[in-house]
Amino acid sequence: MKRHSLFIICTLLAVAVSCRKKPTIANDDELARDALYSVMQISYLWNTLMPEVKREDYPDPYKLLEAMRYKELDRWSYVQDYGQWQQQSQAIFVGHGIMLGLDANGRARIAQIYNQSQLYAKGVRRGWIVKTLNGTDLAPVLDDPEAYSSLMGASQAGITNTFVFETPEGNSIEIADTKATFRANTVIHYDTLKLKSGTAGYLVFEQFENPSETELERTFAFFSQSNINSIIVDLRYNGGGRLNVLQKLATHIAGSSYAGKPFLTMTYNEQQKKRNETMPFSAVTASVGVGKMVVITTRGTASASEDLINGLKPFMEIKTVGDTTNGKPVGMIGTTFSTKSKGYIYMFWPITFTLFNTDGESDFYEGFAPDKYAIDDITRDWGDRNETCLREAIYILENGSVSPKGGQGGRQPAILSEGTRQSNAYLIAK
Hints:
The chain is of the alpha+beta class. It is built from ten helices and 23 strands. The strands form six sheets. A six-stranded mixed beta sheet has the order 11-12-13-16-17-22, with helices on both faces. It has a four-stranded mixed beta sheet with strand order 1-19-20-2. Helix 8 packs parallel to helix 9 (304-312). Mean pLDDT is 90; it is low at 1-20 and 419-430.
């Protein structure tokens, strides 16, 4: 079976481009621009709908891609530094390991924290208020990503920032923390919930990356031993990732009896249609085979996360809670660019294929609207049954329908990351 790669990626294509003697940075960028032009002509999903451009008018691949992109549908194609991609594919994070947001009362809070971070080791958790950063009131700064990025400092190990937190008990704690490089966990939280309807598994999953397979095997071994009969999959900050991880997560949930059966179909442009293929459920060592799943979503739920919902719809009952998803039914094939003098320099990520489920459904460019709208409640830690989205998910499993309370009111918090990871899902201050 073929292996697949990053941001709904299949096989990785390497484009090695020879360069001139003693190349300059400008020459390398021109060569990269020309290589990208060829990739777009051949592989881009909307290659017949691209604007006509003269590539020599653009100094580098970044500007060329922006000019060639089919803007009516394509919000995702991008060019990336090769070193950043290497870190991303291994879930390498540089920083304090946190994501921040503003709650309904305008207070800055920890929305997410990786358990390998030093702040996590010092006791900081999701829901904690961040009162000041280096003596500056943080809440007003979060409305200005550039000011926030400047205050937080570069994404570089060794930079120390001083935080003043307020704990859930109302205590103020000052912590000086130094940015570090570490491998981020992609399974943020998992546990079981004893409900009136039986035992449910609760999984908070943030990205489909290389380390995910081991983390998911451990998680679903625990769920299997706990005899869960339903599952809540929290994908509110999950912007996608590797297609092979998506295949495995789908099998973990649906059950090993599906291994080898059709799951999704990849469809390319007319010029590349011989590459169309059906992707099966993948073999896994631990699965639960549940018939009911509730997915917690936000506008940050994108790509592989949405394809988990779309791909499993024909096989089980699925409800969603939270906000409308990003709306990305398409994926990318990553293409490397290298020169003899510098080696690998860029990764090109043009949209190259569409994914359909076994019922032939795709084209969800408007995203999946939730069955029940609920605010992302960043005032509470993962697993807190009073957290708004989790509470609604539990209600669905216990009652078979959405709760009569609540509605479309309220503003979802904007989430800022202080790290370097590329995302097409949530706001990032770089």
